[in-house]
Structure formats: C-alpha cells, structure tokens
Amino acid sequence: MEKRTGSPYPKIDRPVLALVGVVLVISTAFFAWSDRQHDYRYYQYQFRQMVAEKFGADLAATTSSGIQQVWVPGLRRADRCTTCHVATNWKGFETAEEPWRTHPVEPLKAHPVETFGCSACHGGQGWAIDTAEAHGEVAHWEEPLLGEGLGESYSLVDNKKALMQMNCNICHRYERETAGADMINHAKKLVQDKGCRACHVVNGRGGTIGPDLTWIGDKAPEQYEYGRLSGQKTAFAWHVAHFKDPRALVQDTVMPNFHFSTRDAQALSMLVLSWKRAEFDVALYPGVARTDPQTAEERKAEEDMRTGPGGWFVQTGCFVCHSISVFGVKSPAQIGPDLSIAVEDVQARFGRTIDDFIREPTGTMSVVLSRQIILTPEQKQVAIEKLRQAFAEYQRLKAEGNAPSLSR
Amino acid sequence: MATIKGLLKRSPDTPEAPGVHPQALWSFRPRSDREAGDAIVSNLLLHWFPSKVYKPSLDWSYSFWLGTASAALFLLLVVSGLPLLMLYVPSVERAYQSVKDIEYVVTFGWWIRAVHRISAHLMVVAVALHLVRVFLTGAYKNGVGQGQCREWNWVIGVVMLLLTLFLSFTGYLLPWDQLAFWAVTVGTNIASSIPWIGPTVRELLIGGRTIEQATLIRFYVLHCIMLPGALGVLFAYHMWRVRKDGGLAKADHEAVLANQRPVPPVASKTYTLLGVARGTAPTVKVTSVEAPDLTVSAVPDLTRRAAIVVLATFALVSILASAIPSPLEEPANALVTPNPAKAPWYFLWLQEIVTDTTIRIGSFTINGAFLGGVILPGLLITLLTVWPWLDRSSALSTGRWFPKDRRTQNAMFLALVLLVLVFTVIGMFLRGPYWNFYWPWEAWPEIPARI
After folding, report:
1. Residue B422, CA distances (Å) to A225, B22, B428, B435 in order
2. Which residue, of A50, A163, A180, B357, has the greatest Cβ tally within 10 A?
3. Tens digit of pLDDT per residue, chain B (451 long)?
4. Cβ-Cβ contacts under 8 Å, B87 against chain A
5. B153: Cβ–Cβ under 8 A, 6 or more apart, which residues?
6. Do A142 and B111 make contact, defined as CB atoms within 8 angstroms?
7. Looking at beta carbons, which residues of chain B come within 8 Å of A22?
8. First-to-final CA distance of chain A
C-alpha cells in the first residue's frame, strides 16, 4: 500500500479544532443554562413552601408550576402574569408580600382573571415572564404597569394607585360614573361642569374650536410639543401641565386657563389619555354603556339655548366665552364679560360705541373675530342689533327689579 | 458492533481494485494518499473538494477563510430560520405578537432569534470582507491555468453580496415593529427616487402604495423562499467555478513558481473528472498541479481547517447570541415616525450620502435621494461588476497581497471602502433626531413616553 504523504498541519490544527469544539460545547451549555434562568421558578418554589406551611403538602402539590397563561381572545391578550403572581386566586395570602399576595376580591367579582386577564386593567407587558419586561420598565414598551410606583413618580394627589383607572375607563368610557374609579368620575364631572364640549368634540358631540378629543388617548407621545415643558417628557405630564396653564405650553392657544387644581389636572389627564381605541369583545361587559347620549334635561337645556332669543349667539359661537344671561344663554367657559350689557360695557371699557367696536375690534376680540369667528359685515350688523336687544331686555328687567347677576 | 466495525475497517480479504471503494464510509485518518483521495469520491458533501490542495491556499493569512465563514453563517441562518418559520406568523395583526412569544416563552426561542439576527449581521460583514479580500488580492483575475473564468465568478460574488443585503433587508420587516417598518420605509423611499420608474419600483417592491399586509407577505416569501433559494443556487455555482478555475488564486501563483523550478515528473493520477477532461489522466506526467511537496490531501487537512472555521463561526455566533439581546421596538405605527428613522446599518452610508447631497437653497430643495440612493450605489455596483475587465494588472499579481502593479487600484478601492465605513459610522453613531449631528458625548433629546 502507498504511504501517506506527510503533512505539517495536524500538529497545530488538531488542538485548535479541539479547542473550538470545547468552546462550542461551553457556549451551548451557557445558553441552555441562561434559558432556564427565570425568577418565576423561585417564586413558584417559594409559594409551594408557603402553601405547604399553611395548608399542608396536599394543597401545595396543586400550586402551579411552569409558565402560566390567561388567553383572552376578546381582548387580544395573552397574560402570563400569574406565572409569578401565583397567589392571585388563592385565599389566605391577603397580607403576603408580592408576588405571593392574593388579589383583592371585589374587582375580580365583575372581572374574573380567567375572562379578563391582567394587563387589560393593570397595564404592563403580559407577554413577558420576567419582572422588568412584564412590568414594562424596558425600552420600547409604551404601557408600563399602572401601579403605585408610577403614581408616586407623578406625585398623584391622594390615591397613588389611581393611574389604573385610566384602563377602567377604556371599557367604561361612556358611563357617567364607574364604581371604584373616583378620579375618572371626578374628571367626567369636570368635563360636564366646565363645558369642554363648547369647543371640543367628545364622542361625536361638541364644538369645533378646539381639536376633537374623542380618541386623543391614541395620540403618540412623540406628537406632543415638549419645548416648553420642564420635567418628565411624557404625554401624561404634558396634559397635567397643559390643564393647569394651557398658554404656558402652547403659546398661541385660545384655550382658557380654568385654574384647575393639581388633582383636577391629574384627573382630567387620566380621563383624556383613557380616550383611546381598544379592540374588545362587547360580550365581555354586558350592561356597560356603549354610547354617550345626553340626558333629557341636558338635551332640553341645550335646545332652549339654541332656539331661544339668544340662539344666534350660540350658533355663532360667542357663547363659548360669553354668557348672555338675559336670553338664558350660559357660557361654559365664562371667560369674557356677559354680553347682556355689552352696549354699555364696551363704551365704558374702550370709549367707543358698540357699532364701532364690532366693526373694528381691538384687543382679544380682534384676534377672535379674525381667526375663530369670522363675520361678514351683514352678520356684524345682526350682532349689533342682537346686542342692542339684549341691553334693552336688561334695562327692562332692571326696571322691574329682576336684573340677573352678571359675570364681568 | 461487528458489522459496523466491518463497515469501517477494510477487510484483509478485500482485493484492492482500481475504482472500487472498499469502505462504506470515508476515513478521517487516512492511512494512505489513496484512502485520503477516496473520501472525496465516496462522500457527497466532500465531493466538491479537490483530492489534493496547494498548501498555500490553506493559509489563514491569505484568505482569512471569509468565504467559508460566510457559507457557515448562511447554513446557520437556514437552520435557525426553520424553527422561526414554524413560530412566526406573517400577518400584520399577529407578526409582532408571535415575535414576542418567540422572545419570551418559546424554549430557546430568544436564542434562536438572536442566532438568526447575529448571523445575518455577521454574514453581511463576512461577505463584504470576502469581497474586499478578493479585490485586494486580485483574485478575480485569471492566473496561469487554462480555461479560467474567474471574472464571472467575481460577478456572481457581487450578485451574492447584493442578495445577502436584500435577504437581510427583507428580514428586517418581518417583526413588524417600528424599527422594521421605518427602516423599510426609508429603504423603499430611496428606491422610489429613481426617475420615471421609481414609484413603480417601490409599488412592485411593497405590493401597493403603503407598507401593509401585502408588503409583509411579499417580503416574507422573498426572505424565506426566493432569496435563500437563489443564494443557495449561486453558492453552489460559485463553489463549482472555484474548482473549475483551479482553486484559490493563490494556488495559481504558487503553480507559476513551481513551474519555474524543475520538478521531476511523477506518475500520478487524478481523482477528478476535470483532470480527465483536461487530459491529466492516470500516468500523465504531472508538473505542477499535484506536485507532492506543494500539496496536501484535502481530507483531512482541508476539511479539518474548514471544520475549525465553521465550528468557530458557530461558537462565536452562539456566544454573541447569548450576550446580545435582540431588540424589538414598539409595534409598527404608520402615524408615528421614530426620530431619527434609520435604514438598516449596512445602508446607513447611503442614507448619510442622501442627506449630505440634499441641498437646500432657501425654500428650494434638491433631493439627494436620486444621487445618493440610486446613481452612486448603481455606479459602484457597475464598477465592481466590470472591474475585472478594466483591470490591466499582470496575471502574475493574481492571488497576492499588495502586489506592486496593483498598488494604485488597491489604494483607490481601500479609499472607497474607508469612505463607506466612515459614512456608516457617522450614520450609526453620530446621527440623532432630525438626522442632526451629535458627538458621542453629546446627549440626545429625551424620547417622550406615554405615561
């Protein structure tokens, strides 16, 4: 048999190949090991001990092990939170530390975990099975856990856990009041009282001076202008600051400053951020309002205002800022003087007749009448006549001793 | 056991007959040159190797084995792609969620995805470096062998580089997150800047006018079937051409040297069909191609080195995949442009050039997309493709690092490569929101969050 020709390579190449093989084996072992590194193994083990201690070994054997998942097709969610939060549905661990604590029973009565999952209410990233990712404290996750920690970072007034109410309102948005959502309820009342709909469309109803707010919660954080906002650059922080002083954030805004308290501003911010689209199965919440109709009284009051003697002011939009009390028109914002006495008031303020002022307005009205409410000369003539009628009515009532009290 | 041993070991009764391979399996430790050569003919995977290779073409410092590494990465991509294929759902409603599941709950899912991602990035690097190596050593040139057609293998190599880039690009879209969506938006917008046909090209590419389900499925099929298929076929052809052109260009160079000194004629035989076709049948005198002191058997010396490169590539990818988490941004949102919106990193030099050639004079803007995104890369690819026919350097400079008569073109080429690298680095690390320039020590503006 021919001999094998000698080769210089095996001497070095064989050990190198062996080394590479060892590195490959080690790297394989490393990733296989790191794939098993999850905190839930410890939490489940620990919980099993706790149950064994409290209820005996038989029950301990029934605790969950491995990745758990609540699959909610109606909400398009797969929540794995119960993998670590093992005690959610167990009785007897109400005072235990998280993640071994029993979930409060009351909210679960109407929203069982098996039907609603977790993240629909709590936020966070239900897909994940490790703490940081699951609680949404990672880059590129826009829905962090709406818990106490986040509430504290915003210095929420009273209830630090209130941020979660935003998620209540995604399904309960058309209710006037929702049990357990005090901040949202408060904000909804403010929306009614302050007459936000005078300028903004909400759920299809309202004025068009301001932007439509129906789905404002969908506006991406990147789409806000943060140039004049100090502190946290978040949509929530923006809204709080904006509610407190609109002009401080948006210089040329016509939105009046309502001098909201911090609590008001936080409640309103939660409300508007909850106004976002969400896909869900309506069968999940029978009995919850699905439209936002006006009550009979509200409809009548609005109808009266629009068709009464002051109807022209309502239709033109003057009532957004000005009441015309003698005609029964009440402004939601009331940031301008009552127009019942405009004839006299304009003379006193500007030293000009009402005719002259309406034709050539100065100050704020020059801005409003050139941008928001644009009137033809004929319409201006109508305005002057209507204002004179209002003043005549005011003088008549005054003579009778029934003059309404006017905001100036 | 006896039967297996019988298969592996040559029985003393088996007569040695020419053309008969007495062993069912090949040997990793051949006892004779004949047995070493047998491996090449009796093994499907090994048949693309010659039975004897020139020692210098095994040098680490000549080829750096970049082609082998690229092929290993391609193999890794195919293998890691298969499980992903079963887990990923190519629909705009579910793609993102299925990637999240791969990342979080599928056993080894995060690692498989990371292996796929890291291999893809490394493959772009390896293929590009391979091209740089081949250019610098003039290995696209025909040396002294007969019937060589290296320039066409070079052209195939360029096409394979483009396919690699396109494979990576189509894979970019699949997770359907913001990174994917906007990288593809930037990429396809550059295509639409071609005059006349640009919008049509873009429409053809994304299957409509907006990046939607049609785009996803188009990219998915391209990514999983058409492009890897094309790359596989071209790879086979590329390898076949390497064999047909007489192996690595370095071997040519050595053959010339070998020819210059007298080598006693040795009775030898060839184990390749090529040899027979070229007339180097048994008993023909061999002067250079298989001079015994210049060559070694491909099995096991070449295969061992190939194994080292392939396994080392696997190990490197595995370690990187365990160490570097694969990003997944927010779900794709056509209404929100991340700021800055960046193309995949290997196209960033183009994006950078597009910006730099966009000239604003008052309110008048000359868009650089056509110049930077179409003309320039088009010109570069054309130049690369036709370069072997423009290159006038001597055949003797083939297969050598830094030969004198290639000095100018190598310097020009390196300058271009350096330019591309500089632009890539600027685009990757020094461009912030609104594509403004930021030094690494300058902080970018804070990215706002919802809550």
Report:
1. 34, 58, 10, 16
2. A163
3. 445 555 555 555 555 555 555 666 777 788 888 888 888 888 888 888 888 888 888 999 999 999 999 999 999 999 999 999 999 999 999 999 999 999 999 999 999 999 999 999 999 999 999 999 999 999 998 877 777 899 999 999 999 999 999 999 999 999 999 989 998 888 888 888 888 888 999 999 999 989 999 999 999 999 999 999 999 999 999 999 998 888 888 887 766 665 555 555 554 555 555 554 554 444 444 444 456 678 888 888 999 999 999 999 999 999 999 999 999 998 998 888 888 888 889 988 988 888 888 877 777 777 778 888 888 889 999 999 999 999 988 888 888 898 898 999 999 999 999 999 999 999 999 998 888 889 999 888 878 888 8
4. none
5. B140, B238, B241, B242, B245
6. no
7. none
8. 118
Question: How distant, in Å, are the alpha carbons of A140, A238, B178, B239 from that of A234?
Answer: 14, 6, 19, 56
Q: What's the pTM?
A: 0.86
3-state DSSP assignment of residue B266: strand
CATH class of the domain comprising A162-284: mainly alpha
**Within an 8 Å CB–CB cutoff, is residue B69 touching chain A?**
no
Distance from C-alpha of B316 to C-alpha of A33, rounded to nearest angstrom: 17
Tell me which chain A residues have a C-beta less than 8 angstroms from the C-beta of B108. Answer: 31-32, 35
Place of tokens 């906007």: B182
Contacts with A23 from chain B: Cβ below 8 Å = 312, 315, 319
Asked whether the beta carbons of residue A17 and residue B30 sit closer than 8 angstroms, the reply is: no
Which chain A residues touch B55 with a CB distance below 8 Å? 8
Indicate yes or no: CB of A5 within 8 angstroms of CB of B292: yes
CA of B166 vs chain A CAs: smallest distance (Å): 26
The answer to whether A368 touches A254, Cβ cutoff 8 Å, is yes
User: Any idea which architecture B53-260+295-332 has in CATH?
Assistant: Up-down Bundle (1.20)
* Domain layout of chain A by residue ranges: 40-145, 162-284, 296-400
Residue of B nearest to A279 (CA): B93
Cα angle B436, B440, B444; round to 5: 50
User: Which of B97, B105, B110 lies nearest to residue A80, judging by beta carbons?
Assistant: B105
**How many CB atoms lie under 10 A from the CB of residue B28?**
11
Domain coordinates of chain B in residue numbers? 53-260+295-332
Q: Is the dihedral of CA B326, A70, B451, A160 positive or negative?
A: negative
Give chain B's end-to-end CA distance (angstroms, integer): 68
- Other beta carbons within 10 Å of B269: 18
* CB contact (8 A) between residue B34 and residue A2: yes
The rounded distance, in Å, linking the Cα atoms of A333 and A209 is: 13
Q: Write down the residue that tokens 């049990």 correspond to.
A: A179
